[in-house]
Amino acid sequence: MKVILSVDSIKYPLTGIGRYTRELAHQLADNAEVSNLKFLHGTRLIDAIPKAVVSESGAFSGLRRKLLKNRLVVSLYQFSMPRMKGFVLRGQEDHIFHGPNFYLPPFKGRSVVTIHDLSNYLWPDCHPPERVRYMRSEIELSLRRASRLITDSEYTRKEAASFFGWPLEKIHVAKLASAAEFYPRTLGQLTACWKKYDLPEHGYALFIGTIEPRKNILALLDAYGALPESVRMRWPLILAGYKGWKSEDIHDQIERAMRAGWARYLGFLPTDELPLLMAGARLFVFPSLYEGFGLPVIEAMASGVPVICSNASSLPEVAGQAALMCGASDVDTLRILIARGLEDEVWRTSAVAEGLAQAARFSWRRCATETLVAYRAALGD
């Protein structure tokens, strides 16, 4: 089988989709069924997996964000870039092309696209308007060009079939997995991270994710703030992640919690430090309103950390029976579960063992195997 994988998302800072693309690229490169593997990087076909490097300065990044708000600039990009990619792909029709990040350029061969979630349609208020406009128009083109779709979860598979009117049998699930860097660590491995960020040893609850309304952080802060003061002060809440869209009210509440002494916001951390921060936590809390998969839940379980999450969208499918779950809007139950997650040693011991077993059910090799099923189906259409 000959494959071309788009790798534009492998860039710094490495997002969840960037990690997915990188891991899939490595697995496809090692798979005997793939006889020829190329990567579309920008408007070039390359043979090696690119590294996630810092490619633009802060000033350039700021300029880029401003340009993306300009409809004329975006329209010109939408008109020119897919055509340039399509030109590069000419003569490669004996390959199957995979767009792992919602988008497909024009291509006369067979194409597969990964649709990670439908948040731009179902939760548009959680994204900048210009991003919603851009993604919707590109996804609609991708749906016309695709032979098959891939989703990260069965939940999103059924959601996409219903929303887009696609036959369910033409949508395939390729579940994600935790990166190899997420695993239980020894005290010696964690000491430097704890010291750098002035954190208590296995003495904090953790949230990792973009600071945005869809992650339901205000509910998390309300629940944590309702815990007894002695509990909050003994095990503070640590938050790490990018400042996202419409996050001003969230940051205001984080600031109030920080002034009260029971919360810390670390900002965006380097990729190599996240596994250490995760493994050093006493509890991971993820009350998201909507996820296409919920990768941080699996990463926490793989790190040997007990998990509490919402039962929204795909999260029950990912967490299985290994996490405590509640409704995303049920702040009082979330408070009760957080207290149990911090204090109930019997449950904590059981949750660690069950979480490690649950995380082991997901692997990037399995993801690649399930992806190849979609490739074979597309080639057979």
TrEMBL record:
UniProt cross-references to SUPFAM superfamilies, sorted A to Z: UDP-Glycosyltransferase/glycogen phosphorylase
Glycosyl transferase family domain location: 203-345
Biological-process GO terms, alphabetical: lipopolysaccharide biosynthetic process
GO molecular function: glycosyltransferase activity
Keywords: Glycosyltransferase, Transferase
Gene3D superfamilies noted in UniProt: Glycogen Phosphorylase B
Statement: the UniProt record of this protein carries the keyword Transferase: yes
Protein name as annotated: Alpha-1,3-rhamnosyl/mannosyltransferase
Organism encoding this protein: Nitrosomonas eutropha
